[in-house]
Amino acid sequence: MNHTSNSRAVDRWSISKEESLYSPSIEDGMSLEEEFAWRMRGVCFIQIAGSRLELPLPVVGTASTLFHRFYTVASLYEFPFDKIAATCLFVACKSEETARRAFDIAKIWSFGSEEDVYEEDINEFADEILNYELIVVDLTRFDLDIDHPYYYLYDICEQIQVPEEVINTCVAMMNDSYRLPFIQWYGNRLMAVVLLMMSFCGCEVEYEIDPDSELAHYMEEHSQVIPEIVGSVMDMYKLFSTIYASPTGSPTSH
């Protein structure tokens, strides 16, 4: 599969992890850990809704990527994360030709509410999704040409033998990685390579890579940043285990 055009689209949104220290939310007074926690909550909402709507993984990935891009240029204090997450899913469904009505997404979104949810509340949420749609598309520069690490995993599997157990573990880790803007930090291909190697280790399966192969050369080229990515992924899992112990709702003005 040729990812050239999509790679250029991703590059327009590429930022370093250090640049995340200067996001609009942090400039407005939010801590980095708080911002990461709210981003993770938003993506988890997207993934739960995507599962209930039986959406393909790339659609959910597109919505998650749009969500992170949005908060690269907008503040969590200004735009409610849950409404933006729902809107990103709505936009992703349209862009990936798996359209769902705003009402359907709003209904799924309200499913886990502790209070009784009435149709008028769902309609109100759906109207908010439609109102935020243009804002999301505008602030993300109408850029819906989004690539995903899943495609690179399939490319790698053509170069080395990968057991099904390892593939399944890697796909699960790719799903988890959307909780933070790893793709903006490191790119799809590098994330696919690192997560696959982590999956081999996690499954305690040995692997062999031809030292003269393209994959071996690619890993050597990025050998200095790979430990950083592994550490960042592990930090993500640590943070995820704590965020639901903290208050939910939405960020309030500082």
Automatic annotation (TrEMBL):
The keyword Glycoprotein does not apply. The lineage of its organism: Eukaryota, Fungi, Fungi incertae sedis, Mucoromycota, Mucoromycotina. This is Cyclin-like protein. Belongs to the cyclin family. Keywords: Cyclin. It holds the Pfam family Cyclin_N. GO terms for biological process: regulation of transcription by RNA polymerase II. One of its GO terms (molecular function) is cyclin-dependent protein serine/threonine kinase regulator activity. Coiled coil: none annotated. Residues 44-138, 151-238 form the Cyclin-like domain. It comes from the Eukaryota.
